């Protein structure tokens, strides 16, 4: 009987130890996947960001497009966080970051890039891969040119650096605004800030509209509709004209530094069509190229596929 009790006690301890170890593993995994919602001060502005993963893991800096925010990465962040330190800030005027008026802050891509640059330093990012999407491309390429030693890889999703990507019909009224910044020209662009236009950005070119969550425009549109935000977006429409003159610099950066690059591009995008993806092949030697059968916000329909491609790509590039 004593021997039986001893064996039973030993078995119970083993089971408890196993349960405790499993619980610890689960808690550790949960901790790595847990997304934290944080804010830091940059030049007096509150910059909101989402963060997950171990801080000693390789960092992936996610730079959002228009008219969204770090919200566009809400599913990608936990999908990468078990292996990577993932950080996604909101620019001033977007998401949950401060929204100073156009009289209080100069909304240019140069200034957005400066804020993001200071943000990376404030939160301690010394090396990172950059996810470049839409507005994130001119912000991210400015960072890359300024700090090439910090950039480990690039992940380009419908983010332009070549003239071929902005010579389509969508850009004609915006280019007119670059040339002539008048109230009349600006008012013609306000239709791009409506709920219908926001829905169109999320749904045009997708395979199945019923897979696109209305939580997307449900998040974005109320932020666009805040008093004063339309003026911010018009300022950035105009400032986008400062980007094409820098394309040659960004292309020179690609040729000189040859950052390993993953292209995951929604080929049905009416804003940044596939024509803007192909020219990267001219300048990059270490390039993985994927055109996806979806639209502008490719993560909404092909998020799982993109996360797998990113994990495979980073797994190869960051372990060399």
TrEMBL record:
Domain AB hydrolase-1: 58-302
Pfam families: Abhydrolase_1
Membrane-crossing segments per the record: none
Class of the enzyme per the UniProt entry, highest EC level: hydrolase
Molecular-function GO terms, alphabetical: epoxide hydrolase activity; haloalkane dehalogenase activity
PANTHER family: AB HYDROLASE-1 DOMAIN-CONTAINING PROTEIN, HYDROLASE-RELATED
Record's protein name: Haloalkane dehalogenase
Source organism: Rubinisphaera italica
């Amino acid at each position: 009987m004593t021997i039986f009790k001893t064996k039973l006690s030993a078995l119970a301890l083993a089971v408890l130890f196993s349960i405790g170890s499993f619980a610890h593993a689960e808690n550790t995994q949960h901790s790595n996947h847990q997304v934290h919602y944080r804010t830091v001060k940059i030049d007096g502005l509150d910059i909101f960001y989402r963060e997950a993963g171990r801080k000693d893991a390789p960092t992936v800096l996610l730079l959002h497009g228009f008219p969204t925010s770090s919200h566009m990465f809400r599913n990608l962040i936990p999908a990468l966080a078990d292996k990577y330190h993932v950080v996604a800030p909101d620019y001033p005027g977007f998401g949950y970051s401060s929204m100073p008026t156009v009289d209080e802050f100069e909304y240019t891509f140069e200034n957005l890039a400066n804020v993001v640059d200071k943000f990376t330093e404030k939160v301690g990012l010394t090396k990172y891969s950059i996810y470049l999407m839409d507005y994130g491309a001119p912000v991210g390429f400015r960072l890359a040119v300024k700090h090439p030693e910090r950039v480990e890889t690039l992940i380009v999703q419908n983010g332009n650096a070549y003239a071929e990507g902005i010579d389509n019909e969508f850009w004609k009224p915006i280019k007119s605004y670059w040339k002539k910044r008048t109230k009349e020209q600006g008012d013609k662009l306000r239709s791009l800030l409506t709920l219908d236009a926001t829905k169109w950005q999320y749904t045009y070119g997708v395979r199945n509209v019923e897979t696109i969550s209305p939580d997307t425009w449900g998040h974005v549109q109320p932020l666009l509709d805040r008093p004063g935000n339309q003026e911010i977006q018009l300022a950035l429409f105009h400032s986008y004209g400062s980007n094409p003159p820098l394309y040659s610099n960004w292309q020179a950066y690609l040729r000189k530094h040859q950052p390993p690059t993953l292209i995951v591009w929604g080929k049905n995008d009416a804003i940044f069509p596939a024509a803007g993806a192909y020219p990267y092949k001219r300048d990059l030697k270490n390039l993985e190229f994927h055109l996806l059968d979806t639209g502008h916000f490719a993560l909404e329909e092909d998020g799982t596929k993109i996360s797998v491609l990113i994990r495979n790509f980073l797994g190869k590039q960051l372990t060399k």
